[in-house]
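Have a think about this chain, tokens included, and walk me through the fold.
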Amino acid sequence: MTPNEDYLLDNQQVEAGQRFDALSVLFNPSTFRHAQAVGLAPGWRVWEVGAGSPTVPAWFAEQVGAQGHVLATDIDTSWLHTGTPGYEVRRHDVGSEPPPAGLFDLVHARLVLVHLPARGQALTAMVAALKPGGWLLLEEADPALQPLVCPDESGAEQELANKVKRGFRTLLAQRGVDLAYGRTLPRLLRDAGLSEVGSDAYFPMGGPACTDLERATVEQVRGPLIAAGIATEAELTQHLFHVATGRLDLATSPMVTAWGRKPTAKDVVPPADRPRLVARP
């Protein structure tokens, strides 16, 4: 993702790796299930956009095998160069640069567009990179669907947690993040000309990964939260203590997944072949 002064969750920070690990535990099974559902197979060419960490492109590389190819791009590729990945790594800004050369059977992005100012341009680039019959698979959070980190706000500890989360999302919105973007994906894919569009959503709640994600996120944005007057140092220390005790039933934002297929020439019926409506007297 974009490492600039407006981006709260900079990949250069140590907490970024901890967040990547937690997000992988929470959402990789859903990502992999959806990729398999659209037919991911040996020999496919895959573009993983805004990859962040290596877990998703590495899994794609295993699925497509030696006859396939996986390109993992991000504006910050520092977390992708681990060992021998089995996939190509390239620095690329999908929001401002043309798509990579060549066409892909699958283009996938998770938690990318919601952070980009040029979302429309990025989506257009991803659609353009699809071969006819290729699939676009997008996954984006929609915090506005369920804004609480503690949906069961049963006491002061939960109220503090939700106060911190509201403040964090206020900072995101001030930096241009669309907190209701996930729900728009099916419409955007249809408007982009894709067919066979479908969608669903996944809402994790509870478990060590949710705890790890909350701890790493709060640690990463601790300074901005204090600077904005959203929470005091004492409040954040108290909240992180509550997180560490495991007594909070923590949730993440719902993740909306949408998929669509780029039509082939066979899918387009020439005007001369279309049935005509004949007006009856």
About this structure: Residues 1-5, 277-281 have pLDDT under 50 and may be disordered. The CA atoms of residues 203 and 254 lie 4 Å apart. The longest helix spans residues 14-37. The first strand starts at residue 45 and ends at 49.
